[in-house]
# Entry
Amino acid sequence: MSAATNMRSLLRGSQFFRGCVSSRNGVATQTVPATGGELTNSAVPVVTSLDISAGLTDDQKEFQSLAINFANNEMYPHMAKWDQEQIFPVETLRKAAELGFGAVYTSEEYGGTGLSRLDASIIFEALSMGCVSTAAYLTIHNMVTWMIDTYGNEEQRSKWVPVMATMEKLGSYCLTEPGSGSDAASLATVARKEGNKFILNGSKAFISGGGDTDVYLVMCRTGGSGPKGISCLLVEKGMPGLSFGKKENKMGWNSQPTRAVIFEDCEVPVENVIGVEGQGFNIAMSGLNGGRINIASTSLGAAERSLDVAKEHTKVRKQFGMPLSQMQHTQFQLAQMGTKLVASRAMVRNAARALDAKHADTVSLCSMAKLFATENCFEIVNTALQLHGGYGYLKDYPVEQFLRDIRVNQILEGTNQVMQIIISRGMLVD
Amino acid sequence: MAMKVLVGCKRVIDYAVKIRVRPDKLGVVTDGVKHSMNPFDEIAVEEAVRMKEKKLAKEIVVVSCGPAQSAETIRTALAMGADRGIHVEVPADQMALLQPIHVSKIMAKLAEKEAADVVLLGKLAIDDDSNQTAQMTASLLDWPQGVFASKVEKKDSQLEVVREVDGGLETIKINLPAVLSADLRLNEPRYATLPNIMKAKKKKVAKMTPGDLGVDVTPRIEVLTVEDPPVREAGQTVSDVEELIGKLKDKGFSS
# Structure
C-alpha cells in the first residue's frame, strides 16, 4: 500500500502535509551480524549516517521501508488533526498491529513478531516520522506486551499476548505516582493480600492511555519499603475499585489520553502477579532499558523529518535575493543539525545492539543514548522551527508539533537528570 | 482449475524523487537515488495475491529483469505474498537500453517455461512510460490480452476484464492463457507485514541471464542526449479576446 497509494493520492490531488518523503538511500549496503544470531554477510563495519538506512541489513531495510511507508500514508497526513482534536487513533494503531508493529520485540510464541531491539528502534524511528505521539504510545504498548510475555506465566502469556499483539486489547504501564516520579522505589500504592485477592489502594499519575486501555501493569507495594517490596500486578479495566482521573491537557502527545489511575480497594486476583512477588522493581528496571531506546528512537524520527522539511524550506525560501540555503549561517546550522542527528542515531542504535547482546554496559549505554538523543534531537527540531521563520510557528507546518511532542522525551522514561545519576554512578564504581 | 500466475515487477526510481539529468547528458542520475517497485507492478502483485486468496491462483511466480538490486524488488513481492521469484540479471549499465521488446521476449519465454496461465504486468513503468511490454508479450505468445485492467474476474474458463479506456470502461471476455496489465484502480496494494518480510527470505529466487532464455538483449536504440525540459517561461498577458486570437494565429495555433 506504499508507492501505488501515494501515486493515487497525488493523481487525485489529495492533501498531503508539507514535507517530503526522505529520498536518500545509499547504494553501498553495509551488513551487520543480525542480532537474531545469523550472520547475513561477513562482518563489515557498520556505518551510521544521515542516510537513515545506512548500516542496516537487507531485512532491516525492508522493515524500515514498510514503517516509513506506513508512517507517510497512515500517520503523517493525520498527525495535526489527531493533535488538535485530541484523537486517540485506535484504528490506525490496530492497522499497525496487523503489520506486526504491536509487539515488535515480543517473542513469536504467543503472537509477537520476535524481532530485535535494534529492529524495533529502526521501526519506531520510522513511525515517529509520521506521528511522534502515536508512535510513542505504540512503544509503551510494546513494552507492556513484552513484559507480560517475558515475565508472565504460561496462562498469562497465552491469555494476553495474542490479543495485545493485535492491539485488540491495549496496554498501559503504571509506575509513576503523584508522590514518586524519579524516586520510583518510594512508590506508595499498596497491595494487601486477602485470601485469593490483592486489595490495591493508591494512585498512579501521568498514565499514557489511562482510561482508554484495557490492561494495566501496576507496580505496587506488596512487601516492605524500598525496591524489594514491589510487585507487578496486571489490573484489568472493569475490575472493581479501578477508576480514572480527568484527561490531562498536555503540551504534546495529544493523540494519546493521559490520566491518573486510581485504586480504591481495587480487587485483583492473586493470579495476576506478573513474575513473583518482590520482583516488580526488577521487571520495571529491565523494561526501562528498552523503553529508553524506544523513546530516544521517537526523538530520532522527529528530528529526521524536521531536518528534512527544514532543508527543503531553506532551498525554497528566498530573502535578500537568495535562497536561505546559500547563506553560510544557514548552511552551518544544517551542518550542526546533521551532525547531531548522526551522533544521536549512532548512540541509540549502539545502545539497542548492546541490549540485544546483553552487553555488560547496557544500562549505561541506554541511559546515555536516551540523554543524548532526546536533548540533541530537541535542538535539531527547535532549529528546524527557527529555519522556517514565522512559518515555523504556524500549525500549518509540522515542526511545532514535532517540537511539542518530543519535549516530554527529556522527562519521561527517567528524566535526563536521572540518566546522569545512572551514568555517573556507573562511572564512579570502584 | 487453479491458475499459475507470472507477475512482472520492475525496480524503478521512486516516484517521489526529484529526477536529475546526469552531467554526461546520457541519462538520469541513478546512483544513490531511492528506488522502489514500480507502483503499477505493486498493483499487479497485489492482484495476483488476491487471486491466490480466492483460490483462483495456485502459485505466483514473480519476475524482475535488472541489476543485483532488483533482488530487493523481488523480495518485496515475496513479502506481499508471491511464492517464488526469478531474477533475470541485467547489469546496471545496460538497464537504460533494455527495452520493452527485450523484456517481453523474456516474459514470453518464461511464460512458456513456467506453463503460466496468466501473465500479469503493470500497465507501464513510471520511468519510461512505455506501456508496451504487456501488449508485446501477448503478441509474442499469441495470447489474448486484457490491458489497463481495473477489474478481473474468472468466469468459468475465461477471464472477464473491465478495461479503462479513453471513452470510459470496456468489458471484455478473454480465453486463457492470457496477458493482463494492471491499471491504477485495479486494487490498493497491501502493506507487507513484518512476519511476511521475514518469511520472504526463505522463498526461492532463481537467477538467470537473458542468454539462458535465448533472448538477445543487444540494444536496438542509442541514446543521443537526455536533457531537462525547458525552463518554464513567463506567460504573456493579453488585453482582450481579439489580441488572444491574434497571438494564437501568429504562433500558428489557429488559422
User: Anything to note?
Assistant: The radius of gyration of chain B is 21 Å. The longest helix of chain B spans residues 39-53. Chain B touches chain A at residues 14-18, 31-37, 39-40, 42-43, 69, 72, 75-76, 79, 126, 184, 188-195, 197-198, 200-201 (CB under 8 Å). Chain B has seven helices and eleven strands.
